[in-house]
Amino acid sequence: MRFHHFALEVSDLTRSKSFYEAFLGFKESSRILFEKEEIIFLEHNGIMLELYQNKSGGEIGERMHFCFEVDNLYEKMKEMEKRELDSYEGPITLNNGWKTVFYLGPDNEVIEYLQVT
Question: Domain residue spans in the chain?
Fold first, then answer.
């Protein structure tokens, strides 16, 4: 398991992308659609940020999460099931072929596991 990215929910996707590029040196590495929502991945020195726009009308930040990349998502899910932890959302296959699943930590923090192959 390796750290993959931290996700930031933002109020304006274009403004936030410009900010992280101009002030912190991030560069866009990819874009994907997830449930009709555009997601931008930015990378800088091995650090990955996922930016997505708040369209739910809820409070900014309530869907932020951190993500770990795993070699086999289904093995990780079996491990979590043995620990009696059910997924919060997923598994989901994204349009770029990535597979993902979300769990809740003890304080409802969102933890994502991602298989990128």
Answer: 2-115
